[in-house]
Amino acid sequence: MYNGKLKARALVGRSDAVILGIESSCDETAAAVVRGKDILSMSVDSQIPIHRRFGGVVPEVASRNHTLAAVAVVDDALEKAGMTLKDIDAVAVTYGAGLLGALLVGVSTAKAIAYACDLPLIKVNHIQGHICGVFGTHPDLQPPFNAVVASGGHTLIYDVKDTTRYEVLGGTTDDAIGEAFDKVGRLLGLPYPGGPEIDRRAAAGTPSINFFKKERHADKDLKLSFSGLKTAVVNYVHTLVQRGESLPVNDICASFQKCAVELLVLTAEEALKRFDYGKLVLAGGVAANSSLRREFQSLGERMNCKVYYPSLALCTDNAAMIALRAHFALEKGEDIADLDLNADSGLI
Ligand code: KG4
Ligand code: ZN
Predict the structure, then answer these.
(1) Ligand 1: which of 57, 181, 345 to mutate, judged by most atoms within 8 Å of the beta carbon?
(2) Over the stretch 73-132, which tens digit does the pLDDT of each residue have?
(3) Is the distance from the beta carbon of residue 99 to the nearest atom of ligand 1 less than 6 Å?
(4) Does the C-beta of 129 come closer than 6 Å to ligand 1?
(5) How much is the average pLDDT of 268-280?
(6) List of E strands, 106-220
(7) What is the arithmetic mean of pLDDT over 195-200?
(8) Taking Cα atoms as reference points, which of 103, 69, 129 lies closest to residue 314?
């Protein structure tokens, strides 16, 4: 007999529940323990070295490696927190968005622990988790605020009304910003993932190539697209290759990065004009980008808005952000799942 849902009710209103978070949506297997908004431990097993030789994430390879790492990251997170499963009040897991087979590993692991230890199971939206990573760095930050999630899988702009209400205002209609970084990186022969590599190389280059054919304006519906920019870089590179000329890799990186950042800043600025929250959160793996951070900082100054970022470790995929999102849900008795919880790869 499973009593997890019943036990969740006893935790409503409590701000100090100990939550074990599990994340496996893409190529990081991660676990973390939080007490309320305090992060007690984090464990991240990255598969980047495994996928690097394929130039990108191979979904089936990711799933198989998640199964190998899942128990180890949970053990590691518990050990670092000085705890055992007996000290845990609830288990939280990413159930979407992400790669279906990869998500299923985390979901199955969390369900097994919830069943075996008779604990509440909390389902977490990965993208909202990215936003909650900011509370690990700025625990006193209070909604409402606007948020931009810039990751490998998503580029979305939000109205965060409170810690459990996230309204999508707009976002990319094609490639995610991180995906564009990774594809351009691959085109230039840089190791996967291209994002951090382009960031490094851009610092040594000059943004002398304008990949935009015409002047940019923010879309009133807050939609943006990275695929045109990516194609412009592809065409530029192919032309040079056909002519037998060498590629100015650092300048291409600097120029692409400048354009990609400009697109996101323009759209974020348009969104900010509609709110007077005075607070903006920039989250997701690409929030680690030095130029994006800098430009969002100046955007904040222009718009009289304070900009908040998660620490670098909380920007890229991790399980602390998942446990933090679950903390807010559990406090209100929301998102308590049954043991038939399934993964939802297309969740927004
Ligand atoms: O949030 P995340 O870890 O995974 C997803 O949920 O997608 O984001 C990974 C993405 C990758 O596309 C990676 O290239 C990008 O974040 N990234 C960066 C930087 N660090 C990570 N992109 C640009 N500059 C960086 N410094
Ligand atoms: Zn992510």
Answers:
(1) 181
(2) 999 999 999 999 999 999 999 999 999 999 999 999 999 999 999 999 999 999 999 999
(3) no
(4) no
(5) 97
(6) 121-125, 145-150, 155-162, 165-172
(7) 98
(8) 129
Phi and psi, residue 190, nearest 5°? -85, 155
Q: Whose CA is nearest to atom 24 of ligand 1?
A: 289
- Give me the amino acid identity at 323: A
Angle at 108 between CA 103 and CA 111, to 5 degrees: 125
Scan for tokens 């530029």, then name that residue: 236
Which ligand approaches the C-alpha of residue 152 most closely?
1
Average confidence (pLDDT) over 256-265: 97
What's 47-105 look like in SS3?
CHHHHHCCCCCCHHHHHHHHHHHHHHHHHHHHHHCCCCHHHCCEEEEEEECCCHHHHHH
pTM over 0.85: yes
Query: What's the CA-to-centroid distance between 185 and ligand 2, angstroms?
Result: 19
Q: What is the rounded average pLDDT of the residues 330-348?
A: 97
Measure the CA–CA gap between 13 and 25, rounded to whole angstroms: 29
Q: 322 or 218, which is more confident?
A: 322
Torsional class of 278: left (φ above 0), alpha (ψ -120 to 50), beta (otherwise): left
- Per-residue pLDDT band for 216 (boundaries 50, 70, 90) equals confident
Q: How far is CA 64 from CA 7, 112, 220, 290, 343, in A?
A: 33, 18, 43, 33, 16
Q: How far apart are the CA of 195 and the centre of ligand 1, in A?
A: 6
Reading the block at residue 97, the tokens are 């968005």
Burial class (CB in 10 A: 0-12, 13-18, 19+), 174: middle
Q: How many CB atoms lie within 10 A of CB 347?
A: 18
Q: Hey, is 114 helix, strand or coil?
A: helix
Pick the ligand that lies closest to the CA of residue 154.
Answer: 1
In this structure, the residue with its CA closest to atom 3 of ligand 1 is: 316
**Atom 8 of ligand 1: nearest residue by CA position:** 285
Q: Distance from the CA of 118 to the center of ligand 1, in angstroms?
A: 36
